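Reading a protein record of the kind used here takes only a little practice. To see the layout at work, look at the sequence and tokens printed below.
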Amino acid sequence: MSQVPDELQYTKSHEWVRREERGLKVGITDHAQSELTDVVFVEFEKVGKKVGKGEVVANVESVKTVSEVFSPVDGELVAVNSGVAEKPEKVNKDPYGEGWFVVVRPSAEASDLLKAAEYRKLIGEQ
């Protein structure tokens, strides 16, 4: 069973979102990292890039597949987690902590984020 912290919000494309002072911190869920299996490479878009909701902010390569991480809102990419680029295994070991991906400063409110219970239902764990 996947960890789905109640204090976070989620997207249907398996990103988690934590509201912080500088913007929305985004990572991939425990469910997503377990589906990917061992993450071996992470590449980010450039800090300062304007992104639209649903646009790619990072690419993730695992031993199984290549996947993308999407912005949950329109905004500006204000930070990337270089620690994950250097040690991609952090995504598997701590997806909600050291394994975060980016921070997006929103230019519009995130309107369709899921609560934890809704995300659990989406992944069939409720």
Remarks:
- The two ends are 10 Å apart (CA to CA).
- Residues 30-36 form the longest helix (7 residues).
- The mean pLDDT is 95.
